[in-house]
Design a protein that fits this description.
Sortase, Chain: A, alpha+beta, 9 strands, globular
Length: 239
């Protein structure tokens, strides 16, 4: 092989080696930019007033001059980093990779299943969020598999324009996408009670809280720590 051919071969190899480095660098920078964008947005809108009655002022969030009319609630879980607005759209794809201003962001937003009632008056309401390596969104949710972590964090809060709810967590489970936890249609009260029994029987962690067919249950769902279709789900009842 001539010296010229050797130089060409070396240059080609160097280019091939640089391609994944550049790709990884761009990916990390993109993730960092998305995190910065999300943190700035969350910090900017996260200073809403709470009245003496405990109601959150939603006018700056979804009012005529607010951030986004799709904001229907605010979720806060005690002693975690989960403290975000919740949106609802016409499907479950729109906010997968959009922030609260409807701009592209890989972190997405916390969103209520489009089939759930936005005032949480249904038997079961489902809120989805990504499990981000940065610690944002629902990344703390899989930690509830640890019994002490679960025991030490029994409550959260859901603010809506009409009411503020205490969210008392009664079960956590690791599961897979499409499992029997993921359903929103219930035929009757017996069907609802069977669903509650299924949760308590199959969950990894359970707290002794009264839950019945008339309860308002909220399921928080994110990707689990395992690869593929693994999911982590946390169940709470509204009070």
């Amino acid at each position: 092989m001539t010296k010229k051919n050797k130089r060409v071969l070396v240059n080609v190899l160097l280019i091939l080696l640089l391609i994944p480095v550049v790709f990884i660098g761009n990916t990390l920078y993109g993730d960092y930019s998305n995190d910065v964008q999300q943190r700035k947005l969350t910090a900017r809108i996260g200073q809403q007033d709470i009245s003496e009655e405990g109601l959150l002022d939603f006018a700056p969030l979804n009012g005529a001059d607010g951030v986004n009319r799709d904001i229907i609630a605010w979720l806060r879980i005690d002693d975690t980093r989960i403290d975000y607005p919740v949106v609802q759209s016409y499907d479950n794809n729109y906010y997968l990779r959009r922030d609260l201003e409807r701009k592209y962001n890989y972190n997405g937003s916390l969103f209520l299943d489009y089939r759930s009632k936005k005032n949480f008056s249904g038997f079961l309401s489902v809120i989805y969020g990504h499990n981000m390596l940065s610690g944002m969104m629902f990344s703390d949710l899989p930690n509830f598999v640890d019994k002490k972590y679960f025991d030490d964090r029994p409550t959260g809060t859901i603010f809506t324009p009409e009411r503020t709810y205490t969210l008392r967590f009664f079960a956590f489970a690791n599961t897979v996408d499409g499992s029997s936890y993921y359903r929103l249609d219930f035929a009757n009260t017996e069907d609802r009670m069977a669903y509650i029994e299924f949760i308590k029987t199959n969950a990894d962690n359970v707290r002794d809280i009264e839950v019945d067919f008339d309860s308002k249950i909220v399921m928080l769902s994110t990707c689990g720590r395992a690869l593929g279709k693994s999911r982590s789900v946390l169940f709470g009842v509204l009070e």
